[in-house]
Amino acid sequence: MRKFPEGFLWGGATAANQIEGGWREGGKGWSVSDAARAHFDADVKDYNRHNQITTRDIEEALAHPEDEVNYPKRHGSDFYHHYKEDIALMAEMGFKVYRMSIAWSRIYPNGDDEQPNEAGLQFYDEVFDELKKYNIEPLVTMSHYEPPLNLVLNYDGWYSREVIGFFEKYVRTICERYKHKVKYWLTFNEVDSIIRHPYTTGGLIEDRFPGKNFEEVCYQAMHHQFVASALATKICHEIIPDSQVGC
Fold first, then answer.
1. What is the CATH number of the domain that holds 156?
2. Tens of pLDDT along 59-101?
3. CA distance linking residue 185 with residue 45, whole number of Å
4. Domain carrying residue 157
5. Is 4 within the bounds of a domain?
6. For the segment 205-217, what is each residue's pLDDT rounded down to a tens digit?
7. What is the share, in percent, of the chain residues with pLDDT greater than 70?
8. Rounded to 10 degrees, what is the CA torsion of 75, 108, 59, 20?
9. Residue at 227 is within a domain
10. Cβ-Cβ contacts under 8 Å for 160 (sequence gap 6 or more)
């Protein structure tokens, strides 16, 4: 029987928008996922229905910050409060690596803030320290379906080239902060998913682009993410010379 090679990283994966919860704690700002309503009346296979987001939907979400039923990603599985228990279970399963993501809006609540949110940075410090206790390597995605909502409302998401600069600042912050704790990085989760769900991937809402070809808008946003991914890779290698970075 063939065996996995020595040092093979066996583990599992999550994303902050799926599991974290604690969405209004520790200085975190609104992300696109916090404003994504679940459509319980739609078939789970009706992909388009679940990914249709309008400006009116966002306004409705902002008007009901207390609702964690219709907006389930606001709660997730409450990793924010239970990460120690969760990581202990990962260790029990023999994990050697844990792919996770950092919520951009936990570090820069609005995306365009002058200074990062220290409480958010400290949260991930504690998560990485807990992983180290069990000899589990963190594999960290920089952006996984949670651009800060402010970048959608005031910059039209990744359609704006200006967002590249905001992302670059965020990347420099997390690479500098965690350079002694994280050496495996991913820039974006599936840039091409802008075509499938433009709102959660690129912060794009079709009705905010009147008179424009929305398919072209999506491809322009994808281009900006590819540029940002290349810059993030360069930054990460500069700050963490032995890092491994992919997309």
1. 3.20.20.80
2. 999 999 999 999 999 999 999 999 999 999 999 999 999 999 9
3. 31
4. 11-246
5. no
6. 999 999 999 999 9
7. 98
8. -10
9. yes
10. 151, 224
